[in-house]
Amino acid sequence: MRCIPRKSVWFVIILFMVGTVMGCSVHEPRPVELENMDDIQPNEIIKEEKPGVTPRSLVIKEKLAPIVQDMQQDIRIYSGVFGDVALAEVLKVITRDSHLNLSVESDVDLDRRITAHLQQATLTEALDMVVVDGAGYAWKIEGDNLFIKVFEERIYQFDYLDMAGETDIEIGGDMLASSVEQSGVSGKFQIKANRDVKITDVWANIQETLDMLKSEDGIVRINRNAGIIYMRDRPGKVASIVRFLDSLMEALHRQVFIEAKIMEVRLKQENSYGIDWSNVSIAFTDSGDILTDVFSLSVNGGSSIVKS
Between helices 235-253 and 202-213, what is the axis angle to 10°? Predict the structure, then answer.
């Protein structure tokens, strides 16, 4: 067995202890010198490292429908001549360059012949001339959809009270005093008038008139308490009913409801005022039968005046 010298052992131990102490000591890092620090722009470096993103990609896209579409409808102008053309062909021409979707009711006759001349007409004017006046149908736009229907619906507000009354009028009376009647002379003047409840019922008259104005397939419903009239008929019939209701409302608003009471007056002796000629008597006498030279005046049956 080989022996290690004692000096070598101490040298190894000392070397191990020195290495351990040096490894546990903390050394401050030396500052790193960077050249051209003032020329470095951090924002530019971030933009170069970050992938390109434009502000447009961050905008939330939202569909704005009504305002822009209504402006396009008003601006769009239609001109053309249609002579004995099917309704389907005319609708195809009108909606071809528009943003509208077309929906046609099943009862609409698309083969109905149309004759129209459009000259610088808006979309509303063109549809009125072709669909309403030409074919007798109704149309309505809801959003991006154009609906062609057979009947038009309308709710009319009729401002009139639900009031029906019966009127009785009686005017007249005794035209002469009671004292004259006792002498055998009498006079009487009297006027009587009666108005039935059915005649003054405005809503019943409106219902009767609207039933005559509407078509056989039309519908008219009246709510008397709310003053609402619902109509569902062809556009021409609905227009006639609306004109009638407008004229009727204007005429009714000019009327004034007046309730008057006429009191009868009876004359009695207890309430008489003036001269009582029954208590005054005048007598004239003429002795010569030529001139009146003597007369007497009696007042209240007591005093007398005589002149000769």
Answer: 160
